[in-house]
Description:
The chain has 269 residues and is mainly alpha-helical. Helix content is 66%, strand content 0%.
Amino acid sequence: SHPMDFSTPSRSLQSLSRRNPPLPAEVVDLGARLLELHVRLFTAENEAAAEDAEQATAPTREARDCEEYGRLILTMVELGVAGGDGGDGDGDGARNSNQARKLRWEPLAVGLHLANDYLERLGRSVSAASVESAASAAMAANADATAYFEGPRVPTLTAVGPASTGITHAAAASGGEATAGNKRSAASGDASALLPRSVLTALLVDDSSSALPAAFCQPLLSLAQSNLEHSEPRVRSLVARVVGSHARLATLLPAFIVSSPNADADASE
């Protein structure tokens, strides 16, 4: 049997079609659709489309694709929980009836792997958007603040001497971290793409039943909890990752919601 590859979401989806005994056609077809959406949403070739989505009014096509992506991930997980064809699909009656109902761990593992990647990506996107909003608010506040002649209240350390570049130690350190982060993002391939604020707002700030917290996160946690003691070690590991990524996203959401334009409009009403 061809081994499963969980190095990236794309490779895990591609592995589904190469399993032997083959997985059910519905699992393979679902994997193909998820791969199509993943490539459309999160690959570098679609950065221009993401920028267009940032300018468009909600709901954008990208937001709808993200909603469908989440629904299909849940479907993949449910197929792994409900069971699938354990044979090659051409059994002969009662002899293969038990095998046909055999649980297959691959759809469950791939679904959890995609869910963890999706939650991590949402967390990174929410964090970046919140930091950007905080920086914009700080710049606006500083523009209206009273100027103090004695200088800034928080001093910074600056290199001195003939070889001085005039760059503060703090700036140099943050620049180095950013460079390292860029290298990590480049090396991680499709793990580097972030979702624009307009899409995040449509997915996370809306309090309807179709919003991600109610439509994706809650059912996912319920499915994850039911597989805490799964017989496959990789599934147990992925369950733990999903729970951790969900917890991180939950801690980041309040600051993002407060900084969103929709929150300001609701407060004024």
